[in-house]
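Appendix B, Record 12. Input sequence as logged:
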Amino acid sequence: MSKNVLIIYSELDGLHCECGNGEVRTGDGLTYKTFRYFWTDRGAKGKALGCCLKCNSDLQEPEHRVAPADKKADLLATFGQPAQ
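Logged structural output:
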């Protein structure tokens, strides 16, 4: 398994991986096609876990980050605009 980190950017609803894989959320009840992502009730509060199916990353909690302006533009150009 790879050590690539999964990222949720605060202004881009969806998952992204350091390997370059990404999907922008486009509606309620989205099923990711290139990520495994689920909620587990283990632990006091429960948590979301995911892994990238492209690079077979480790199962992990995604990191929440603010997307820098240039990164945000690149991600939207690559993965499309989220639905409003």
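The radius of gyration is 13 Å.
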